[in-house]
Design a protein that fits this description.
This protein is an all-alpha fold and 151 residues long. Helices cover 74% and strands 0% of the residues. About 5% of the residues have low confidence.
């Protein structure tokens, strides 16, 4: 069951309209509709917590590995990072369509690909010019430079 199907099913079981669920979680009706039908996901951990509370379920039920991966990408790299992560998942999934791998093997490979994605993002961050980095990355690098005596 997809994230959107879970949200819709739980919302209907609880007797909520999209507007009511939106009000309970502090988002717009359009956002709820996008979750249910547009393949969109909440952008933050806090929103998953609000949804779980509103729908009387656990966060773990709402999240699969894919949703956790996409949320983390959005939190760390914004909307662009989330789109890149989704494209990465889609291309990975397409690679194995119609193959002879067991579901367990596909899951294992998927987890490894997700780890490679994070590693690549971290490496890319290292080589991003300072003027494009956020302040936290600059502070961490400055501290590391001072420790090594390169400043």
């Amino acid at each position: 069951m997809t994230f959107g199907e879970k949200i819709r099913t739980l919302r209907l079981q609880n007797g909520y309209s999209q507007e009511q669920l939106a009000a309970m979680t502090g988002v717009t009706k359009r956002t709820v509709r996008n979750w249910e039908t547009g393949g969109k996901y909440p952008r933050s951990q806090a929103l998953y917590e609000k949804l779980a509370a509103a729908l009387s379920c656990s966060e773990e039920y709402l999240r699969g590995e894919q949703e956790l991966f996409l949320t983390k990408a959005a939190e760390e790299f914004g909307t662009r990072g989330q789109r890149q992560a989704q494209a990465f998942l889609d291309s990975t999934r397409a690679m194995f369509a119609g193959g002879d791998l067991s579901p367990e093997d596909i899951d294992m490979i998927g987890r490894h690909f997700m780890e490679m994605f994070w590693e690549a993002k971290e490496n890319a961050r290292k080589y991003t010019p300072r003027k494009y980095r956020n302040d936290d990355a600059d502070d961490a690098e400055s501290a590391a430079d001072k420790e090594q005596g390169t400043v």
